[in-house]
Amino acid sequence: MAEQYLQRHHLKPVERNFTCRSGEIDLIMRDKSCVVFVEVKFRKQNHFGSAAEAVNWRKQQKLKRAALLWLKKNSLSTEHTEFRFDVVAIQGPDQQIEWFTNTLVEG
């Protein structure tokens, strides 16, 4: 569902469910020349926080390590490759989708 949503917004799929020791990346997409690492979160209810809130600092760090490994594996340098981290949050019985771009914040 998240991949189809992003495709409707002109992102192109590259890879799904990339896994490594550092973690997993749900979707890897391209937005023109930018590689987009996407974390997808689903919550039927928000009793324990929203879907977007589930992407905490620890999860972001795992995502970052996995992304760096993916870039290296694909012979792409961090200095010469445009990339970002997005979150697609799907929530509620009506499966409302929210898309947050460039979510990884250092510090």
Automatic annotation (TrEMBL):
Gene3D superfamilies: 3.40.1350.10. InterPro entries: Restrct_endonuc-II-like, tRNA_endonuc-like_dom_sf, UPF0102_YraN-like. One of its GO terms (molecular function) is nucleic acid binding. Belongs to the UPF0102 family. This is UPF0102 protein P3TCK_24285. It comes from Photobacterium profundum 3TCK.
